[in-house]
Amino acid sequence: MQQKIIILDFGSQTTQLIGRRVRELDTFCEILPYNKFPKDDPAVIGVILSGSPYSVHDPEAFKVDLSQFVGKYPVLGICYGAQFISYANGGKVEQTGTREYGRANLRQFDKENPLFKGFEDDSQVWMSHGDTITAIPSDCHVIASTADVRFAAYASTKYPLWAVQFHPEVFHSTQGTLLLKNFVVDICKSRREWSAASFVDSTVVDLKAQLGDDRVILGLSGGVDSSVCATLLNRAIGKNLTCIFVDHGMLRKNEFKKVMAAYEGLGLNVIGVDASEKFFKDLEGVTDPEKKRKIIGRDFVEVFNAEAKKITDAKWLAQGTIYPDRIESLSITGMTIKSHHNVGGLPKEMKLQLCEPLQWLFKDEVRRVGNQLGMPERLIKRHPFPGPGLAVRILGDITREKVRILQDADDIYIENMHNYTMPDGTSLYDHVWQAGTVLLSTIRSVGVMGDERTYEHPVALRAVTSQDAMTADWAHLPYDFMAKVSNEIINKVKGVNRVCYDISSKPPSTIEWE
Ligand code: XMP
Is 183 in a helix, a strand, or coil? Predict the structure, then answer.
């Protein structure tokens, strides 16, 4: 049986990060809402309580019955988790005015405690809390302090229970991964069996059992998730998988052809559908971003369904849904900023069942699985690309000519990014989470080319660093790279006479412009 750590989510921004760190320790974990602890799951080997945007004193603060797991499994409370354990067991949490945000150092810690095995003196930790624990439960003892916070970490003498005020999951807690390893591997006794290879082996066996001789349909988008999903299914059921790849006309330059060739090289059974005519017609004159998204989403489902219905004996619809897609849908504070559209909607009359083999994986794990399956690097390392494609990167209405201009400019940007080598020998493309070009087609500016006045559109280059697209920072691209790209775009792309670089982070901006 696959062991697992349960992470109870109290709504912190970093809950997913805790999950990824545990997976990096080759241990499976599940992130569940704070009040959904699974009863009698024999696979559970430990429990982690996340941070929270709330104070334990807020009337709407999330409260949990700790007796469900304390004393039964090793437990680690992080930030709010630590405060709540104290608050619920006779300790004290107060607003003392000693808020701590940012770096701190562990001035004293219990070197004998297994949680701190291998820790260095003055180890740097990351704090982010308004309330402070001012008293811990009577059966607990303090195991670490910082200059400002006496109860930076404490442990129970009665149960396998630890609590830390700081965030071991974030990069700036320099020995945070070690702390989590001490907890997951030494304390919870993880066998460390979770790996891309073990995932592929067990998933192929499961898919064979689940699908038997049934026919399966899958919508490909050209992106990493659906491509890995298809390759995995292909390994399990071969020709019983039929993939549908719809070209809405707003993909990157030559993307449809290139990706179709890559899929065929992987031995996938793919039907390519050029539906660009329909999309351009339906989008004619539409300028509102949400309307554009809605039309594309609707058309996509129509085209996909028409194609899917031709496969009359299909029983399953496979989707490349990954774990963060599902955790976000459990999000406590989540809100819709843009209506995202993804491949496929279920043609109801077909009564297809859903098959989502990547539903437990984080993005970096999907890439590792792709590697394990022998997929080409360029397909695996692809940046995320929005479902509505270049339509959300063209301000105002969409025409074939505008798409052509944007494709040409974007191609120069992205190809240069692949070809630019960083000091560590990898490409600049691999250093950023996502890059793309935006055509500011509602704006014109004056320029001069040769002896002639120009009055054309600017493009904005966008490149961001991110862990999960929930937050992002603009990438600090090398100046010589930007100079080359700008020069090449203005010289080669008819219709563009100015290049800008977008230096906004998310939040408050978003990654895509529309
Ligand atoms: P925003 O613009 O909201 O984008 O910061 C966050 C991430 O989502 C991608 N994106 C989409 N992905 N369907 C998708 O599958 C969509 O409709 C869609 N819109 C945006 C965006 O590229 C970024 O990676």
Answer: helix
- Residue 360: name the closest of 320, 387, 318, 329 by CA: 320
Q: Residue 214 and residue 103: Cα distance in Å, rounded?
A: 55
Please give the pLDDT value at position 435. 98
363 lines ligand 1 (CB under 6 A): no
* DSSP-assigned states of every residue in 388-404: TGGGGGB-S---HHHHH
| pLDDT value, residue 471 | 84
Q: What is the mean pLDDT of residues 166-189?
A: 97
What whole-number distance in Å separates Cα of residue 84 and Cα of residue 62? 9
For residue 169, what are its two tokens?
């999951």
What is the DSSP pairing of strand 108-109 with strand 140-145? Answer: antiparallel
Q: Which of 4, 6, 5, 15 is nearest to 332 (CA)?
A: 15
Active-site residue (options: 167, 248, 341, 457): 167
SS3 479: helix
pLDDT interval class at 465 (50, 70, 90): very high
Neighbour tally for 482: CB within 10 Å? 16
Task: Give tens-digit pLDDT for 438-448.
Answer: 999 999 999 99
Question: Which of 329, 389, 322 shows the shortest CA–CA distance to 358?
Answer: 322
Full DSSP string of 267-291: T--EEEEE-HHHHHHHHTT---HHH
- The answer for residues whose C-beta is within 8 angstroms of residue 433's C-beta and 6 or more apart is 383, 384, 464, 465, 466, 467, 469, 472, 475
Question: How much distance in Å is there from the Cα of 97 to the middle of ligand 1?
Answer: 39
What is the rounded average pLDDT of the residues 316-343?
Answer: 69
Residue-wise DSSP of 294-356: HHHHHHHHHHHHHHHHTSTTEEEEE----HHHHHHHH-SS---SS----S----GGG-PEEE-
* Pairwise CA distance, residues 507 & 510, whole Å: 6
How many CA atoms lie within 13 Å of 83's alpha carbon, on the beta-carbon side? 29
State the maximum Cα–Cα separation within the chain, in Å, rounded to a whole number.
Answer: 84
Per the annotation, the verdict on 512 as an active-site residue is: no
Run of H or E residues at 182: none
Averaged pLDDT for residues 445-474: 93
Ligand 1 neighbour 388 (Cβ under 6 A) = yes
What is the value of pTM for the model shown? 0.88
Is there a catalytic annotation at residue 167? Answer: yes
For residue range 217-272, what is the model confidence (pLDDT) as tens digits? 999 999 999 999 999 999 999 999 999 999 999 999 999 999 999 999 999 999 99
